[in-house]
Prior knowledge:
Blueprint: H1 2-19, H2 25-32, H3 38-50, E1 54-55, E2 64-65, H4 67-77, E3 84-86, H5 89-99, E4 102-107, E5 112-119, E6 123-130, E7 135-142, H6 145-152, H7 159-168, H8 172-177, E8 186-189, H9 201-211, E9 222-224, E10 233-242, E11 245-254
Parallel strand pairs: 3-10
Antiparallel strand pairs: 1-2, 4-8, 4-11, 5-6, 6-7, 9-10, 10-11
Amino acid sequence: MIKKKTILLKYVIQEYLKSGEPIGSQSAKELAQMKVSSATIRNYFKSMMDEGLLLQSHASSGRIPTHFALKSYWREMFDSDKIACFENCLDLEAKSKQLDCFVGVLFLNHFKLTEVQNHENLFLVLRFADVERSEEQEVVLRYRAPLHRFAEELVGMRLEDIKSFASQVQANEFLRSLDSLLEKHFIFLGVKHIASFLQNSHGERLFFELSRGEIFNRLRNGVYFDEIFPKGYVTFVREAFVAGEKVKMLYCGKLECDYSSIL
């Protein structure tokens, strides 16, 4: 029974994402191609309503998935190892319009911290290398023993991971020292789809954090819900290729949109 309910729920969610309409028992039976009666499907529906997976607005209507069910579905659908490819930014713009979602793209450099040098306890030199571009850069910092120990622990890490970690521990001065390495740019599309964030102070801060690209400093690849974003929204962060260049990409929109084509 559990397996059949799981299959049925998946079909209900997929059809709801496509149509935006409640799903009736007969339609669900046909979609899932299950050899059971409509009455059995209705019993499955009742069970899933009791579990908080489906909703019914009134007795004669079909069912729709709850936010809880949609969250579970998007977690299952997200594959962090899969890298999407887009021909160009126009392709991204088309996706933003199709899905009614905000799209942010961070064009990455590929620096790694390769060495930390202490010059007579006067200053530190952090040496970064971008192997793909055969490029090296250095960052010079005033010496402090705690900073030296902190930097030593980061050797071998990618710049974007260092930024994320430094943001989490609020090493703001250290973060600012890396600005000279951050010459790659950020673009965003479909900002109108997150305009509702401006309705309160937390959402306003998040809106500008998104539209300035600052959100990439603290979010790793993954799926995010209302632990960070407003209730009813989902955000995917992942790596991708745009016009052959590796980027970090973020999609943010309502839970009920169908993101299957970008996952």
